[in-house]
Amino acid sequence: MSRAVVFAYHNVGVRCLKALIGRGVDVALVVTHQDNPNENIWFQSVAQTARDYGIPAITPDNPNAPDVVEQVKACQADFLFSFYYRHMLKAPLLEAVNRGAYNMHGSLLPKYRGRVPINWAVIHGETETGATLHQMNVKPDSGPVVDQMAVPILPDDSADEVFAKVTVAAEMVLWRSLPGLIAGAAPHVQQDLSQGAYFGGRKPEDGRIDARAGAAQLHNFVRALTLPFPGAFADTRAGRLLLWKTLQAGRTTPAAAAELYLEAGRLWLRAADGGRLAVLQAELAGQALGAENFAALAGGDALPLSL
To answer: Does 103 score more than 90 pLDDT?
Structure first.
């Protein structure tokens, strides 16, 4: 029986941990995170999954600390797996197992290496993304690819909807790759890093809307950041605007900057390029915003977004 140490968090962590167990891998130790009380914890718990299966679990602040490395070495594991674990794992950890360390990444590597790849893919209007199992080395998301699976990004998919697809793809990729990995027969294909780029993490303040952007760009931005993420926002004369759901809806006259307006009993966003979005869910100054209260909250017939 193969033995593994698993570093994991989030839904991908839960599903991939269960895939290992389902394939008969002996998971000797799970390393996960303490939930942050300031974060919207909308996803499943790896720590609870480990408890359910009677697997020892730890939540170190620094996974690369010498005592953690020694715990991993003591497991005498064949493999180390990382499934949406948020900290970088350094060389001593990657070398603490006998047959290699592997990571599940939420993109079609070498595209969208780095942080929050699904959100970045939606922001950039991609029509597909996926899950990639690759061998880990010290440079993040650059090791040889074992397997990957694509999923579609539909024009109105939110990042959360795409994440659900990628979670299933990750489980399937791991499930079908494990027999080859255990047998020592899995492919390891070197990445051409020139075919992709590295992206950094995102903070809530990165959700500020560019009022000069075109309608397609605005729509992609909104759906990439909508719930359960912090949201796309703009400041206006009536207070802070949060856009949660939009649909592309033809064209109108261009504007100097994006503006909300009311027409035919519906709320619209006119973009600088003349594209138009139907606004299906929004907040203004902390209140739910719709056609019925737009004039009262906005103080007029149109509400420009601040540049």
So the answer is: yes
pLDDT range class, residue 1, cuts 50, 70, 90: confident
Query: How far apart are the C-alpha atoms of 21 and 19, rounded to whole Å?
Result: 5
pTM of the predicted model as reported, rounded to 2 decimal places: 0.94
Cα–Cα distance measured from residue 305 to residue 271, given in angstroms and rounded to the nearest whole number: 10
d(CA 128, CA 86) in angstroms, rounded, equals 23
DSSP track, 74-114:
HTT-SEEEEES--S---HHHHTSSSS-EEEEESSSTTTTEE
The Cα angle at residue 229 between residues 225 and 231, in degrees rounded to 5: 50
CA 210 to chain centre: 22
Once rounded to an integer, what is the mean pLDDT over residues 198-218?
A: 96
How many other C-beta atoms are found inside a 10 Å radius of the C-beta of residue 99? 15
Tokens read off for 56 = 């020892």
CB 243 within 8 A of CB 269: yes
3-class state of residue 66 by DSSP = helix
Q: Does the pLDDT value for residue 157 go beyond 90? A: yes
Question: In the structure encoding, which two tokens stand for residue 253, read together?
Answer: 């006259």
- Domains of the chain: residue spans and CATH: 3-199 (3.40.50.170), 204-304 (3.10.25.10)
Residues 27-61 have pLDDT tens digits of 999 999 998 888 888 889 999 999 999 999 999 99
Q: In Å, how far are 68, 104, 209, 243 from 228, measured between CA atoms?
A: 32, 22, 18, 13
- The owner of tokens 């499943």 is 44
**Cβ neighbours for 162, distance < 8 A, ≥ 6 positions apart:** 118, 121, 122, 129, 151, 153
Single out the residue of 177, 182, 98, 107 nearest to residue 140, CA to CA: 107
What are the tokens at 23?
């394939």
**CB-neighbour burial class of residue 39 (10 A; exposed 0-12, middle 13-18, buried 19+):** exposed
Q: How far is it, in rounded angstroms, from Cα 307 to Cα 140?
A: 36
